[in-house]
Amino acid sequence: MDYKELGLKVGLEIHQQLNTKRKLFCDCPTILRTDDPLDTIERRLRPTPSEIGEVDVAALKEYMRGKTYIYQYYDTNCLVELDEEPPHLVSEEAKIIGVEVSLLLNSNIIEEIQVMRKTVLDGSNTSAFQRTMLISTDGYIETKQGPVSILTVCLEEDAARLISQDDTTKTFRLDRLGIPLVEIATGPDISNPEQAKEAAYILGQILRATGKVKRGLGTIRQDLNVSIREGGRVELKGVQKLDMIPLWVEREVERQIALVEIKKELNKRGSEKDLEFKIIEVTDIFNNTSSKIIASSIKKNGGVYATKLKNFKGILGKDIQKGRRFGTELADHVKTYGLSGLFHIDELPNYGITSDEVNKVRAKLKIAELDSFVIVAGKEDICKKALEEVFERCKKAFLEVPNETRDALEDGNSKYSRPLPGRARMYPETDIPPFTIDSELIRNIKENLPETFDEKVNKFIDKYGLKKDEAERIVYESPELFEKVISSLDIKSTIFIKALDLSKNLEREEGYVTDDQTLYLLFEKVSKGIIAKEGIEEVLKRVSKGEDIEIVLSDFSSDNNSADVEFAIEKIILEKKDFILEKGDRAISPLMGLCMKEFRGKVDGSLINKILKEKIDEILKSS
Amino acid sequence: MEPEVGDIVTLRKGNTSYEGIVIPSPKKDSIIIKLSNGYNIGFRKDSVEIINMEKKQKPKIFSEVKFEKRKDLPEISLISTGGTIASRVDYETGGVRWLMKPEEIFFMAPELSDIATFRNISSPFQIASESMTFECYKILAKESAKELNSGSKGVIITHGTDTLHYTSAALSFMLQNLSKPVCLVGAQRSPDRGSFDGSMNLICASYVAGHSDIGESVIVMHGEMSDTYCNVLRGTKVRKMHSTRRDTFRPINTSTLAKVFMNGKIERFSDYRKRNDDNEVYPDIEMEERTAIIKAYPNFNPEILDYYIDKGYKGLVIEASALGHVPTDTINEKFSWVDSIKRAREQDIIIVFATQCLFGRVDPFVYSNGRIMEEMGVIYAEDMLPETAYLKLSWILGHTNEYFEVKRNMLDNMSGEINYRIKGDKNGL
Ligand SMILES: [Zn+2]
């Protein structure tokens, strides 16, 4: 694809949690909890009057019907997170990291910084606003394909974690509320998918270079803003895997191109003014349907409703992303109302809907050659709202690629989530006076900026004799721990990397993040020979299942003198004598496996191997 | 030319330029602008160059509110006096100002119009509650009585929270023959935010004022940190006990009178004076101003007492320790209170002891040092809160200076300020 021709513009927005001692606006630690909360409080959040002094009646009605918010809190929370005490002054440590990141991004520090309140009414903040402050503007980073501008660097508080929700209640956990975040927004001047990945990678490296960011799942959140000249602005949320960024961008471009083509086709056929919104109930046609979805909706006292889409024949069946049609897109809108989806003419008859039923619907809706229809099933008021949204989306198909927020999907596609939010109301946090960052402090930070990623990689190659890819890996993942371990313990870098791999696997598969302290304790035992390197995996696995590291380690510390080892191996050999006689030398590797299982990593593999070899030789010789 | 608030300016600092709207700055030598992304940023005036300046934006005007009278709802009155609950934030600048009109209270709780109809909304003054004087209490008492006697089923007074319990106590004594609810309401969080607590307090107070059978001066505020219910607290036995929490007002030496829920349900918890809509309330507003509260503490120099004596004070409430003790057997005699108290009594100054523990009762007879004071004519104020004792004493002294008359009245349980039976409560004090 010729991205220049298409006028592709991509911007990145990165939110990174900081590993500070205290939270941004209170003195609580920045740790997440998995145990049961101390207690909960219950709150309602009200719509507030707008600037012009009016209460938004719709918002108020929503509130009256509205949700109750339950907040779980711990002994690691205080009254600030409960919105029962004014914020404390901004964490100095977080300020310094903000300045450091700004300087690494070549941004200009704001002279007088004002903490702002950004209105948030989804319950994720007990105060109903998020505190945020602009630290610097107008920076840039260099990529292989030219510079990418940094619009803003902000420091803000993370939101509470959503734990569960139903129709009336949303439950949040306050452990995450207030953890400092650095928010970096690039300009929309990334011009191709690979550059987007590179920029994200470089930003990640810069953040990690400070040594003060949190690592692991959920500690960094990336959003992509993607648009092409004839398309619309789309914000892709939940872009977690760096390697997939190019694919996400490509698929979004594909989608926007397809929507532009649909627009052209539709305009050839007519105009959006030809569309007439009329909902027609077609329940009677489906009274004896074999479509399970429709039958069950009718059974639950729901109905079946259809609307005609003039000139849409074939459009809903058009692919807009690999494996996703325009109809899928409409179904996503319908799903936001809690319906399971929709049926459209281009895919019917199918899914238990017969051609007879289709023809009856066609007749009832007076469908002409070029027309299409969609059917939804469920409660009347919900179906009506959903169909209205489908209708509005179809009208827009004549005019534009809508600006919207989409959720990134695992396969590179994305699905509709909501319209792009309007700008949130932002006004000063009156409880915290504006502050300036001392120029002496800035100079000091500037003179002591951390090494760049490349510098550090080269240093690690020279100092520790690492290969380039190993050094990159370690510097990206865990440079501080590596230096600490290598300098104080007898651990080879290969073992360190192996442990890193194992902990990454656990993170991917179990969502468990092994902390540095745990890894260090483990390396200490390996270094002393108390745990063999083969035992690392078992230790990490058990810790990830919630066992206490000290207890797991002490399990491994039981005395294993070589006499015991020899005795145990002898026992195994005697049991397997026939097998040894049959296989000869080749028996060693299966028996090795057996012995390793027996010792579960408590004994070094090379020692077992040595004893085993001796014993097998003895048996073979004696026979 | 100096840029003015509302102007759109472009500023240059070094090689960066910033465009935004000028916002009021608290510091003379700095300029604050609001960027198009919503953030406010500031500069020292001498560090930036103004490279462009455009016409002033028109200031936003808060729109008018109308409230309709509904015949099917009880008529109540609202008196607004200032405080957080009566403030509004200008979202553009973040500036806080008092409500221009009391009607603006409906922005904070539009539901009020379905609970009661407001026969009158007035605002005799707008001040922070820490700035209240007896003058204010007199106005509030007269205003409340006027409303109640002309048909209102109850009065809601919005008020800053800091001294809400002083006002509730003052009105308890001034409003003689009160038999309708006078509800004092405040807020601990500012009204700009979705988590504003004042709305629920106002809604609950409207139910109490318009629909309850309570006939006392009460405080209606959050009962716990959750937005679940409000407590109705007797005006003479309540105190602000937390600087920031929304459930800051706690009953002292008693229990809550009732719990009120957002749906109007009222759960009764203890006895109170019952509503009688036929009664006429009489505002008896005479107060003696030369009264004071003095706290006793280690190393207190009685010269401080002498100051009040010499200045001609008529009555002093002493926040004495625990059972009602002040220093009498100090190593250095100059720290003993005996002589000063004696001198005060000789000059017919009324001395009242209340406990600085707040919880519990004073008793002169347990230790000798209490007896010394009692023999000199100190009045021991039972389990009365020091603040309540202060307002009660000032009110009594507004009517009489005669010692026995004052003592009899101080110890007369006029408005539920004394509880002769404090119950054991295992959930705290
Ligand atoms: Zn805290």
Automatic annotation (TrEMBL), chain A:
The keyword Manganese does not apply. GO terms for molecular function: aminoacyl-tRNA ligase activity; ATP binding; glutaminyl-tRNA synthase (glutamine-hydrolyzing) activity; transferase activity. GO terms for biological process: glutaminyl-tRNAGln biosynthesis via transamidation; translation. Coiled coil: none annotated. Its EC number is 6.3.5.-. It catalyses: L-glutamyl-tRNA(Gln) + L-glutamine + ATP + H2O = L-glutaminyl-tRNA(Gln) + L-glutamate + ADP + phosphate + H(+). Keywords: ATP-binding, Ligase, Nucleotide-binding, Protein biosynthesis, Transferase. It holds the Pfam family GatB_Yqey. It is an enzyme of class 6 (ligase). One of its GO terms (cellular component) is cytoplasm. SUPFAM superfamilies: GAD domain-like, GatB/YqeY motif, Glutamine synthetase/guanido kinase. Residues 480-616 form the Asn/Gln amidotransferase domain. HAMAP family: GatE. Allows the formation of correctly charged Gln-tRNA(Gln) through the transamidation of misacylated Glu-tRNA(Gln) in organisms which lack glutaminyl-tRNA synthetase. The reaction takes place in the presence of glutamine and ATP through an activated gamma-phospho-Glu-tRNA(Gln). The GatDE system is specific for glutamate and does not act on aspartate. Belongs to the GatB/GatE family. GatE subfamily. NCBIfam families: gatE_arch, PRK04028.1. Heterodimer of GatD and GatE. This is Glutamyl-tRNA(Gln) amidotransferase subunit E. It comes from Candidatus Methanofastidiosum methylothiophilum.
Automatic annotation (TrEMBL), chain B:
It is an enzyme of class 6 (ligase). One of its GO terms (molecular function) is transferase activity. Residues 76-267 form the L-asparaginase N-terminal domain. Keywords: ATP-binding, Ligase, Nucleotide-binding, Protein biosynthesis, Transferase. The active site is at 84, 161, 162, 240. Residues 4-50 form the GatD N-terminal domain. It comes from the Archaea. Pfam families: Asparaginase, Asparaginase_C, GatD_N. It catalyses: L-glutamyl-tRNA(Gln) + L-glutamine + ATP + H2O = L-glutaminyl-tRNA(Gln) + L-glutamate + ADP + phosphate + H(+). The keyword DNA-binding does not apply. NCBIfam families: asnASE_I (TIGR00519), gatD_arch (TIGR02153), PRK04183.1 (NF003217). Heterodimer of GatD and GatE. Belongs to the asparaginase 1 family. GatD subfamily. Allows the formation of correctly charged Gln-tRNA(Gln) through the transamidation of misacylated Glu-tRNA(Gln) in organisms which lack glutaminyl-tRNA synthetase. The reaction takes place in the presence of glutamine and ATP through an activated gamma-phospho-Glu-tRNA(Gln). The GatDE system is specific for glutamate and does not act on aspartate. This is Glutamyl-tRNA(Gln) amidotransferase subunit D.
